[in-house]
Write a structure and sequence with these properties.
2 domains; homodimer; Arc Repressor Mutant, subunit A; alpha+beta; 8 helices; 6-stranded antiparallel beta sheet; Jelly Rolls; 3-stranded antiparallel beta sheet; 24% strand; DNA-binding
DNA sequence: CGGGACGTTGACGGTCGTCAAAATTAGTGG
DNA sequence: CCACTAATTTTGACGACCGTCAACGTCCCG
């Protein structure tokens, strides 16, 4: 059997609560199973889609870790997000029928391919799915507002602290440790996301280690003082 | 008649092509007219909605100019966008049924109130409307990617040049001049949006004036050298 | 075992933030 | 309509933060 077309029902997927609406009856679940046509495997370093490619589907991440990034005409690029299991990517492609960013796997990954035409058709039948899609898009808008706040008003230490807290919180929601994580991205990719140069990211990690807030061994990070990170993000909130 | 409940049909609104899907038959247009319940006037300085308020409706701007902003817990705030006629605001509220930002009118404004429950109901009937809503949300996501690029990788001059070009382009699409505009926001609000302090915004304007690229008289701006602004945004693209 | 990608650290400089003061404008009430 | 006050804008001086450039160290994969 072609590994690209393995079929596993959404109704029995353990990420169901992350990417699908709750409270559907079995008939509705069957329709969603049918809509999610195929799985696709993406090797580490490979692109799920690239800027300019025709948009046909949204992708729900089953396993693995992605970054999305855009490039300006003069070659600068900006990482716009890091996505993990249960999150949906490809929303940028809807408006103009082609993707406007690159989505690259940072570790071997598998995604569920959801043809957008099918999503829209099914949304007209199942209002819970319709509302779920709207929520996913709204959530992405709200997330980006938070990134704008970070990029627009925070200093390097605040940015990195906020980044670590956000990552570990999302990982914890998926059953991983609250205090330990493995970074799937390079210092340069972190820097691109946070609007910092890779040297500044490295220095800021070193500062946190000196202060006893985290332990860092390459990409393995152990958070020793979550509260200290919170205070760094929100210095005035103590007053 | 209560001015808050004046009714003017979408089908005869001259902003139709900006906020509504094209190619609807008259029956579909009637349904949309019915969904857009009321208009609402918002005085300059007043809020259309505020962070924490219950989300019920999206708003299409008929006249006027808005800013949206979020506040962090420690009092910093970040302008997340400036919106003008034909644009839709309130999308942030969908995900958690309450708004997560403030929308404040920067000049006297009038909006069309579109109850979101009605939008969803009608979207299930009219697939062109459904797709249009998806596009509006996707467009906002793509716009925010651009802001992230700006905040993450551009210097002050590049940010302000990109800001002016974006504003004048959107105004031109609404029939205004390609080279002249009136800023409806303060230097501080521009700075907040661009991740700069108001003094830096002011200094950068002065620099552009020295260089003969723009004329600035308070909030009135005349662009003398559009190409120079483009080169500032994309310095390397010339090579 | 070797080469290349990745990460760390140091020295230095530039950009932009901070603080301050003055100028100009806008808004308010008489 | 005008006077007065508050808000906004401009400009300067100075310094902090972070970017740049460079060298070195470490890890991973073939």
């Amino acid at each position: 059997m072609n590994p690209q077309t393995i079929k596993v029902a959404c109704s029995s997927c353990n990420l169901r609560e992350l990417c699908m609406p709750m409270g559907l009856n079995s008939g509705e679940l069957d329709m969603i199973d049918e809509m999610v046509g195929v799985r696709r495997k993406v090797k580490r370093g490979a692109a799920l889609f690239r800027n300019g490619e025709t948009f046909t589907s949204l992708f729900a991440i089953r396993t693995g870790f992605f970054k999305t990034s855009i490039a300006s005409e003069d070659g600068r690029d900006q990482v716009t997000g890091f996505q993990m299991a249960g999150e949906v990517i490809g929303l940028d492609g809807i408006v103009n029928d082609h993707h406007t960013c690159d989505a690259v796997a940072l570790e071997d990954a598998e995604v569920c391919v959801m043809p957008f035409a099918d999503i829209e058709a099914l949304s007209r039948e199942v209002s819970a799915l319709q509302h779920h899609i709207h929520k996913i898009m709204s959530r992405e808008i709200v997330r980006e507002h938070g990134v704008m706040l970070l990029l627009g008003s925070m200093r390097a230490e605040e940015r990195l602290a906020a980044f670590l807290l956000n990552l570990v919180q999302r990982l914890h929601a998926r059953g991983f440790s609250q205090s330990e994580l493995i970074l799937r991205m390079t210092r340069e990719e972190i820097g691109s996301y946070l609007g910092l140069k890779l040297e500044t990211v490295s220095r800021t990690f070193s500062k946190f280690v000196e202060d006893g807030i985290v332990e860092v061994k390459q990409r393995h990070v152990r958070i020793l003082e979550t509260e200290a990170l919170r205070r760094i993000v929100n210095p005035q909130a103590l007053l």
